[in-house]
Amino acid sequence: MQILVITGVPGSGKTTIAKILSKKLKAKYLSITKFILQNRIFEEQNGEKVVEVKKLQKYLDREIKKIKNEKFLILEGHLASELSFPNYKTKVIVFRRNLNQLKKEMEKRGYSKRKISDNLILEAMDYFGEHSRANFKDVYEIFVKNKKTTINKILKILKGKKIDETKIANKTEKKEFILMLQKNEIQLL
Fold first, then answer.
1. Strand ranges for the chain from DSSP E
2. Which domains does the chain have, with CATH numbers?
3. What is the pLDDT of residues 47-77, one digit of tens each?
4. How far is Cα 17 from Cα 19, in angstroms, rounded to an integer?
5. What is the pTM of this model?
């Protein structure tokens, strides 16, 4: 089985694109967030759900073994960058996105100012890309603009094209991050 991991900051378009791709590729789709909630792989701490990554890895390994006869699995979620699947051919796509668009998406979802700031900082630091590269060999970062372009980039990657937009995303987000700090749109503490 081949695994396509889609990860990135919340609000970057992971779920939307993963669902479209799973239909297009006739692939099994697994949302890590839904999997965590269904299997109660979290603890409540100060009103937040905290996931023990080692436990999540163990549960996911078990789940993947159950579906090993599938040709292709799309595994999607922001915690995917913390995992590893060395027994499978795995490509990881890290979604990067304009910070202002991310902020609007998170506000629309009702995230607190603290949670928005934390996620914007993680995105600006390329947290998901760095962690993905630490845990996987075949990692690509793409700058998400719209569905069609994003899907086309992923299909090209699956066909073997090397697409890496890390530098473009880092440069763009650095400028946005500085402006957001100057406007006090991001809380550092």
1. 2-8, 28-31, 43-45, 48-50, 72-76, 89-97, 139-144
2. 2-98+128-166 (3.40.50.300)
3. 888 999 999 999 999 999 999 788 999 999 9
4. 5
5. 0.94
